[in-house]
Amino acid sequence: MCFNTSIIFYSQGGNMKEKQMFGLLTVVMVLAVFAALTPAAAADTIAADRTIDPTSLQAGDTFRVTVDVTVTGTVYGPVLNEDVPAGWTVTEVNNAGASYSAAETKWIWLDEVTAGTKTVIYDVTVPTGTTPGGYPVTGTVLATVGGETIGPYGVTGNNLVTVTDGGVGDTDTIAADRTIDPTSLQAGETFRVTVDVTITGTVFGPVLNEDVPAGWTVTPVDNAGATYQADGTKWLWSGGQTGTKTVIYDVTVPTGTANGDYPVTGTVLATVGGSGIGPYSVTGDDGVTVADNTQDTSHDGATGSAPSGSGSDETPKPGPLPDVTMPESEEDASPTPSLTPATTQTTAPPATTIKKPGAEPKEGFIPGFEAAFVIAGLLVVAYLVRRRR
């Protein structure tokens, strides 16, 4: 159409100058149409967004910062600069492949970075004694594209934390209760301890300390996310903690432990607003009883056996001779003599002697001698009585 128009224009007697101008306008219009139909190339850009959790806390507490650095297209040597209040402690958690500069709180990627997201995470601890108020946490990102720097661009999202008065509120507390099963057992056996650590609100760095008798073996069963320290029988949680933590461990009583009652005690403590709360005693079961079920069946003399050292292998000695009263003269003599036999004659007869198997008579001892002696004495008495008559 443009060509036909120019021909018509020319045929109508237009001069050469007007014809050249019309041709130029035609070329511009064609180029504009092509530009409109050609898709625009994607831009090479960088941006970042920040999340802070929590945004309100007390002096001495810690908050976490997460920064998502998003690259569109391709950039070179991107840099994230974060600005936190002076004196606050920054602890790296995830550098997302960047090199971290602690002196400037800066993350640097040294190579080409293509489209995608880099997530940087770090913790910040508010110093104890920090004045209550709002404190900014800001930052920027920049990069190089085509030999030129783009940015810095401000990091969007959360950019402020509020430090409260640091008082210990009634809603932030910690307590614990203990259950022991069984509470009575024998030496060498094992009992189980369950401690429920209950947190109301939010506390930081809670600690459970348990105290069992020295020498008894403690075996952790469930640490409930805490770090267990065998030296001190202690469980430690890091950072802010909420809810209930159930710690379970077994205890073995050493063989040979004396019977009796043994305490199992403990405490819990934590930090709130930069100040320590506790230690608070763990309630519930607080001890075990060691009781040996075996009975002592030895009873000296009760079973009829001879006690040790009784000399049962010795031969009984003869008893004393009868007490015989002799008359001084025939006139004074009574019809019957006074005869008083010794009572030991009937209580320890030779037949009751207990001898060990294979025992031999002692050297120089004649068995039955004492019986013969007694009989001889009786014969003498009988003779004297007969003579008197």
What is this structure's SSE topology?
Elements: H1 2-11, H2 16-37, E1 45-53, E2 56-57, E3 62-83, E4 89-94, E5 99-101, E6 106-108, E7 112-125, E8 133-136, E9 138-145, E10 148-154, E11 156-157, E12 160-163, E13 173-181, E14 184-185, E15 190-211, E16 217-222, E17 227-229, E18 234-236, E19 240-252, E20 260-263, E21 265-272, E22 275-281, E23 283-284, E24 287-290, E25 323-324, E26 339-340, H3 344-347, H4 369-388
Parallel strand pairs: 1-11, 2-12, 13-23, 14-24
Antiparallel strand pairs: 1-3, 3-6, 3-7, 3-9, 4-7, 5-6, 8-12, 9-10, 13-15, 15-18, 15-19, 15-21, 16-19, 17-18, 20-24, 21-22, 25-26
Helix pairs in contact: 1-2
Structure description:
- By secondary structure, the protein is mainly β.
- It folds into four domains: 2-37; 46-163, Immunoglobulin-like; 173-290, Immunoglobulin-like (Sandwich), CATH 2.60.40.680; 323-358 and 365-388, no CATH class.
- Helix content is 14%, strand content 44%.
- The protein has four helices and 26 strands.
- The protein has helices at residues 2-11, 16-37, 344-347, 369-388, and strands at 45-53, 56-57, 62-83, 89-94, 99-101, 106-108, 112-125, 133-136, 138-145, 148-154, 156-157, 160-163, 173-181, 184-185, 190-211, 217-222, 227-229, 234-236, 240-252, 260-263, 265-272, 275-281, 283-284, 287-290, 323-324, 339-340.
- The strands form five sheets. Strands 1, 3, 4, 5, 6, 7, 9, 10 and 11 form a nine-stranded mixed beta sheet that branches. Strands 13, 15, 16, 17, 18, 19, 21, 22 and 23 form a nine-stranded mixed beta sheet that branches.
- Helix 1 packs antiparallel against helix 2.
